[in-house]
Specification:
Elements lengths: L31 E4 L5 E4 L4 E3 L7 E3 L16 E3 L4 E6 L2 H9 L4 E8 L4 E7 L5 E3 L4
Parallel strand pairs: 1-9
Antiparallel strand pairs: 1-2, 3-4, 5-9, 6-8, 7-8
Length: 136
């Protein structure tokens, strides 16, 4: 605001947003939010997906997965926390893979570890609210 002019409006010159990548809807379906080396925000497609035709914030699956074509790609520091998920406690990573392979709507899973257990958070239908963060 201008000095000496209490009725003038404020002008924003800087804004801090902590954890912008975790704001739901920053990217569209099947995409993950990430900042590049210049700290510019962008939506990226995970392996097996290409940018959607409608805008640069969504991704579409390149090939539909069939039967024995299933494979999982490790993505460090990536999380998808969409609405259509199931969290299951398991004893080993292979349990996550087996369960997802046996469900036609499973798009993948996020593996979460804590001090006492292993959790698979299965992603069904489409990947939503994806983001990359070293805090994941």
């Amino acid at each position: 605001r201008k000095r000496g002019s209490p009725s003038s409006s404020w002008e924003m010159v800087w804004e801090a947003v902590i954890g912008y990548c975790t704001i739901h809807g920053s990217c569209g379906e099947n995409a993950m939010y990430k900042v590049d080396q210049n700290w510019e925000p962008q939506c990226q497609c995970p392996p097996g997906f290409d940018p959607g035709s409608s805008n640069n914030k969504t991704c579409r699956q390149v090939n539909k997965i069939k039967g024995t074509d299933v494979r999982f790609v490790e993505q460090d520091y990536v999380n998808f926390d969409g609405l259509n998920v199931t969290d299951a406690t398991v004893t080993k990573l292979q349990d996550c893979k087996d369960s997802c392979e046996n469900n036609a709507s499973c798009m993948g899973f996020v593996l979460k570890l804590d001090s006492t257990s292993v959790h698979c958070v299965y992603q069904y239908g489409k990947l939503q609210n994806g983001y990359w963060s070293p805090k994941v």
